[in-house]
Amino acid sequence: MKINTDAQKIEELLTRGVDEVIHKEVLQKKLLSGEQLRVKLGIDPTSANLHLGRSIPLLKLRDFQELGHQVVFIVGDFTGIIGDTSDKDSERPMLTREAVEENKKTYFAQVSKILDIDAVEFRYNSEWLEGLTYREIGEHADLFSVSDFIARDNIKRRLDAGKRVSLRETLYPLMQGYDSVAIKADVELGGTDQRFNMLAGRVLQPHFKQEPQDILMTPLINGTDGRKMSSSWGNTINLLAPAVDMYGKVMSMQDSEIVTYFTMCTRVPLSKVAEVREALSGEANPRDAKMELAFEITRMYHGEEGAREGESYFRETFQQKQVPEDVIEISGDYVEALVRTEVVASKNELRRLLEAGGVRDAETGEKFTEMPTSVTEPRVLKIGKRRFVKLMP
């Protein structure tokens, strides 16, 4: 494939939704030279679902791919067992091999929603990590000091607070760094929380007579509740979410995130993003910009038809005010309360509705397969076509 050296496209690649590049001048020169680069991104299967936060480096990987570079997607089936605590304030438990195997099953399909999967070099890091000997691991570890590891912000905070830091955690950067050696990476992509791990690749590669990789870091985004998007917090917008759920969840996020999501989670022209930013700084209704955003994100993963479905559900439910103002409020055992208040005729009817996808979050469109046992804040459910109920804490 011919390498595209268009200076404007390269500049956007290196700046759009980018927090830091190490080293930008060096990488920019390589990109302009027409040399094909090997560009690496690794994701551990700690959850079965990839979410929009994960899509940011994936979209950046696609940008490299569209310029003609060889992208290498690594499923961290071995690093996933060890566990990375780069973005955690507590020790991440080791995952079982069974859990990792189960989680990674759909990664290929999820990644194909963004990348041209036929042109991707798809690897599992157990290929090279599982067979390393103590001698080899000792050789790798000798290139780093303990102080390098404990100087990291989150590790220092945990130590200062008297929290446990396991020796296992010190191994993770070595493994991610060795991934770069194994696949001979020229560039590694990752979130800002991966800075130390990616720099480990730059330390290890010269030891193996390789040029140190350049690094491109993307920011982290907030989820639907305003905190960092994380599967462990349940505030994600998953790439496999049904169209109605995806559209509704984008609509439920904070208005302050609109421009950030347009910039990092879509590839609409930056001129359009500038128009949105300017409109929001004036008297424009954020809802309109958010509906454009929700349509575009849903279209990326479900096509035009899915985006229209999501928009239609939102308009019918909210803009046409199908949610009644005097919606019934229930608390305690929600199943019993639904029957008692005659919102449903029986527990059997409720079960059938749940199995048929007939119970949704009225705001996000998320389907429920079973009733929640508790909520932390009031939540309105749409049951069937016309019934609504508000779950109270």
Write up this protein.
The chain is α/β, with parallel strands linked by helices. It folds into three domains: 7-221, HUPs (Rossmann fold, 3-Layer(aba) Sandwich), CATH 3.40.50.620; 243-319, Tyrosyl-Transfer RNA Synthetase (Orthogonal Bundle); 328-391, RNA-binding S4 domain (Structural Genomics Hypothetical 15.5 Kd Protein In mrcA-pckA Intergenic Region, Chain A). It contains 18 helices and ten strands. The strands form two sheets. A six-stranded mixed β-sheet has the order 1-6-5-2-3-4, sandwiched between helices. It has a four-stranded mixed β-sheet with strand order 7-10-9-8, with helices on one face. The N and C termini lie far apart (57 Å).
Brief descriptors of the model:
single chain, 393 residues, alpha/beta, Rossmann fold, Tyrosyl-Transfer RNA Synthetase, Structural Genomics Hypothetical 15.5 Kd Protein In mrcA-pckA Intergenic Region, Chain A, 3 domains, six-stranded mixed β-sheet, four-stranded mixed β-sheet, 47% helix, globular
Beta-strand content bin: 5-15%
CATH topology annotation of the largest domain: Rossmann fold
Q: Count every helix, treating DSSP H or I runs of 4 or more residues as helices.
A: 18
Write out the CATH superfamily name of the largest domain: HUPs
Could you give the topology of this structure?
Elements: H1 7-15, E1 20-22, H2 24-33, E2 38-43, H3 52-66, E3 70-75, H4 79-82, H5 97-103, H6 107-111, E4 121-124, H7 126-129, H8 134-141, H9 146-150, H10 153-160, H11 167-183, E5 187-191, H12 195-207, E6 214-218, H13 243-252, H14 258-265, H15 270-281, H16 286-319, E7 328-330, H17 334-340, H18 347-355, E8 359-361, E9 379-383, E10 387-391
Parallel strand pairs: 2-3, 2-5, 3-4, 5-6, 7-10
Antiparallel strand pairs: 1-6, 8-9, 9-10
